Amino acid sequence: MKRTILIVTAALTVLLSTQVFANSAPVVSNVSAYQRDDGSGVLDISFKLTDADNDRCSISVVASNDGGSTWTITPSSSALSGALTNVYPGNRSIAWNSKVDLPGVFGPNYRVKVTADDGQGPSGMVWVQINDPGVSGHEGFNGEMSKYETTNAQYCHFLNEALASGDIVISGGDVYGSGAPYDGQIYYDLDSSIAQISYNGSSFYVKTRDGYSMANHPVLEVSWYGSMAFASFYGWRLPTEWEWQAVADYNGTFTYGCGTTINTSIANYRYSTHPHGTTAVGAFGTYGYGMCDMAGNVWEWTNSIYSGSYRLIRGGCWSGPDHYCSVSRRSPTSPYHSSYGLGFRVCR
Fold it and tell me: Sulfatase-modifying factor enzyme-like domain spans which residues (predicted)?
């Protein structure tokens, strides 16, 4: 049987702070993956783990079937063997029985990404497991979706990692992609007066407003490309518009992401109290499947095309009227666009 060599990539995780990054990042390097030639489908994956703080780390693996443009395949725990938790720095190896997750699947475009988390990574990523059949005639959602909209702190974390890895460049007051898949596309409008993330010449940091940290507010001024880049960097993705609606309308009875009705005590929209525009994620409560801010706060990019290059956004925002927050409201937007009311959440 032909021995298949997979092209692999390494990723790292660092401590998140609104201003400084005190923790040293664990680094995964020298990654190699070989498929055994005994027909078992097992991939032997080896890598070097380093961490200046000598932290014990958790190891994760994701796979791509399109050459690394997206990372949508998460090996099941039963298919992985070897040390995956409490792993000390050093030369390490694990194995993935790919036949468990991809029975009978073959192809030249598969890639594997290995990541290390020292437990000091971005705070606030909370996943909700959901299986909803969706709106009649459209796909439902079966997977995990972020309970919260992506925050300034989380996006700042991404920008610093992407800067270190050469995946972004700063030009003319904006952040652009560097390299595949979104080379030259705008990610973030850094010099907008509304932007909550800034750059000091060496690293990104989250601003304060009137002495108040904006770290836990949803990121805004981010384009569709910037949202997709964030998701892909960590092996996640944006939901389609119908996946988004399947979750937002709960069991099909919700008119808004906060229930059958909407008012200023349960959602952040035009007439709500919001001295800083956006509000901290989750500030208006939990609804449906345990989700927050699916009505208002910021519009959320989806991965669905409206026409041409235009993508659809959902959910309404802090500056819009209540009917914009309807679960059925569909708004087409250019993927290059970034604004004071436009953010995203991820799923996997």
Answer: 144-347
| Same domain as 312, residue 245 | yes
Owner of token pair 């988390």: 117
CATH number at residue 261: 3.90.1580.10
| Residue ranges of the chain whose pLDDT lies below 50 | 1-23, 121
What sign does the CA torsion over 258, 261, 265, 271 have?
positive
CA dihedral 99, 105, 109, 115 (to 10 degrees): -30
Instruction: State residue 13's pLDDT score.
Output: 32
Say if residue 204 is in the same domain as residue 286: yes
pLDDT at residue 275, rounded to an integer: 83
- Measured in residues, the chain has a length of 348
- Please tell me the predicted confidence (pLDDT) of residue 180: 84
In the prediction, which pLDDT does 18 show?
A: 28
* pTM recorded for the entire structure: 0.69
CA nearest neighbour of 141 among 127, 131, 153: 131
The per-residue pLDDT for 116 is 80
Q: Same structural domain for residues 283 and 172?
A: yes
Measuring CA to CA, which residue among 208, 165, 156 is closest to residue 187? 156
Quote helix, strand, coil % in the chain, to nearest 5. 10, 35, 55
Q: Residue 26: which CATH number?
A: 2.60.40
- E strands along the chain, which residues? 5-10, 27-35, 42-50, 58-64, 80-81, 90-97, 111-117, 127-132, 141-146, 168-171, 174-177, 186-188, 197-199, 204-206, 208-209, 212-213, 299-307, 310-314, 331-333, 342-343
Task: Pull the structure tokens for residue 169.
Answer: 């460049």
When divided into structural domains, the chain yields a total of 2
**30 Rama sector, left if φ>0, alpha if ψ -120 to 50, beta otherwise:** left
d(CA 237, CA 303): 8
Full residue range of the structural domain in which residue 67 is found: 5-117
